[in-house]
Amino acid sequence: MTPIVPGQPAKILLVDDRHDNLVALEAMLQGLPVQAVTADSGDAALKQLLKGDFALILLDAHMPGMDGFETAAHIKSRERTRQIPIIFLTAADRDARLALRGYAAGAVDYMTKPFDPWVLRAKVSILVEMYLKSEHIGVLARQLAQLEETVGKTLAVLAENPPTEAVKLATELLQAAIRDADTP
Fold first, then answer.
1. Angstrom distance (rounded) from CA 15 to CA 58
2. DSSP letters along 46-105, please?
3. Is 70:28 a contact under the CB 8 Å cutoff?
4. Tens digit of pLDDT for each residue in 67-118?
5. What global pTM score does this model have?
């Protein structure tokens, strides 16, 4: 797992068997606070997911070999990746059954080409923002847990030591907790 670094762009995985589609997607997403990682097949996408954390997956529904639906099923079956939102992208006709199949595979959206790049950008922006906020909440929760542990230790020190020694030790522990809480 790759830790989230504050201020760094969120990684999104672009999956399409056609190189020109990947290039077009990267161009549409230029200027957004994202780092695009590309994969040209379902297998390549699953390998990328083993290498790091992703905020979002843009997944072509129709690819040779493992199609997008099967790829999504593998992604959603893994504990580590099942929460990653997937937007299916397809050049197929607007058959409602295909869209339902995409949603059944775990997608949060299903877009048919040609689609409005500004709509895609808006959807990507919202999902990335939600991801970053969720990651920030996780960081805050870990900091709170550390602080609670330090307070517990401090209370134990106060209960077991004479008042003057206890105050000195408690002060040192609380100062250390404050320093640790300030570092991300």
1. 6
2. HHHHHHS--SEEEEES--SSS-HHHHHHHHHHSTTTTTS-EEEEE-S---HHHHHHHHHT
3. no
4. 999 999 999 999 999 999 999 998 766 666 777 778 888 888 888 888 889 9
5. 0.75
